[in-house]
Input
Amino acid sequence: MKNKVKFLIILMSLVVVTTGCYEQETYVSVRTQKSKDKKESEKTEKEVAEKIEKNNEEKNENSEKTPAKKIATVNVESLNLRQQAGTDQILLASIPQNTELEILEEKDVDGVKWSKVKYNDLEGFVLSEYISIKTGE
Output
């Protein structure tokens, strides 16, 4: 009798395990949830991609409107930054060699070329012959 009971228990266990009734219901609900999450994820990825594309388009539009900055490097030991173009103008600062400057404009005064530059928080003029303009920017 004990052997028959053991056999029936084992047989019932095999039937439950192989049919997977309980497991199948759990699997279906998890799979459904994953499917929803995947759809949400795909939607979010698409929104992010659209935002990135929009930002890139705006950057391209802005870069087309704004001219590229002209950068120069001081090629002498010390360069005088003056309030106006001219050697007799007020001295604002002395700029050390290899300093990068943003060129704002260039002008000719009595046959001498001057560049209006931005140095730190100051704007002033330097003799153009003492700076080297970087190319490719």
User: Anything to note?
Assistant: The chain has two helices and seven strands. Residues 22-30 have pLDDT under 50 and may be disordered. The beta strands are 70-74, 78-82, 91-96, 100-109, 112-119, 122-127, 131-133.
